[in-house]
Amino acid sequence: MCQKNALLSRNCRFGCLDIESPHHVFVDCPRYAELRNRELDSLFLSVEKRLLEAKLSPADQALLLESVKSLFSDSEIVWPLDSALFFLGQIPKIDPLIPPHCINNLVNRSRLVHNIASDMHLSSVRLASRIFGDLQKVMSFRHANPSASTNTSPY
Fold first, then answer.
1. Which residue stretches of the chain have pLDDT < 70?
2. Tell me, what's the pLDDT at 155?
């Protein structure tokens, strides 16, 4: 927005000292921390339920659940380049996170991987759309009321 002369500063419009970028807004900005945490809690419960239904032992669940916890943050566990990309619709590969000996039936294993990947993708898209929607709302409000503060959050 600064390049388009719509903003005077490159700093985050919500008072952070960081430069505003898509990565900052979706992954790091404190304004959306609560929203990220709520979506993560929901996703974690969903994946945990699927793993329990598949009768995976807690030891076999550990790596996948740790990856789910790191989905909305920068983490070398989940993201090969140590930079979260969930807001671009990307999710980590699920198949290597489930040990091969856990599920002998290939159809059941494939179904589990697909369902968990779908849950992660849906949560990622839902979170990104909520953050983007709020950002658009703040920008339109600010455009209509240039002296308005943007530090208040509905989340």
1. 1-9, 142-155
2. 47
pLDDT of residue 121: 95
Looking at residue 20, the DSSP 8-state letter turns out to be P
CB 89 within 8 A of CB 121: yes
Q: How far is the CA of 153 from the CAs of 21, 93, 149, in angstroms?
A: 19, 33, 10
The answer to whether the beta carbons of residues 123 and 45 sit under 8 Å apart is no
Whether residue 15 contacts residue 151, with contact meaning beta carbons closer than 8 Å, is answered with yes
Q: Tokens 């979706």 sit at which residue?
A: 26
Burial of 73 (0-12, 13-18, 19+ CB in 10 A): middle
| C-beta separation of 48 from 56 below 8 A | no
pTM: 0.81
Which phi and psi (to 5°) does residue 19 adopt?
-75, 135
Written as six digits, the tokens of 106 are: 């290939």
Q: Residue 3: what residue type?
A: Q
